[in-house]
Design goal:
Elements lengths: L3 H9 L4 H9 L1 H4 L7 H10 L8 H7 L5
């Protein structure tokens, strides 16, 4: 469990603190070579000619409210 101050900070920037903690703990299992909002991952994939990156679904949970 994260301290309340950390949870407030994550909420303020639009990150789901519960999923964020899981993503950090299980980084290698959830992501490949990038972490960020779904939009940021999609932009990266377009620039590198990838169709989809591992972690896109999980990023949608963690960074759901991020711009």
């Amino acid at each position: 469990m994260l301290p309340e101050g950390s949870m407030r900070t994550l909420r303020r920037v639009g990150i789901n603190s519960e999923y964020w903690l899981q993503a950090v703990r299980e980084y290698r299992r959830r992501f490949f070579n990038m972490v960020g909002s779904v939009h940021a991952i999609d932009v990266y994939c377009a620039r590198t000619d990838r169709e989809q990156a591992k972690g896109s679904d999980w990023a949608g949970r963690v960074f759901r409210d991020c711009a």
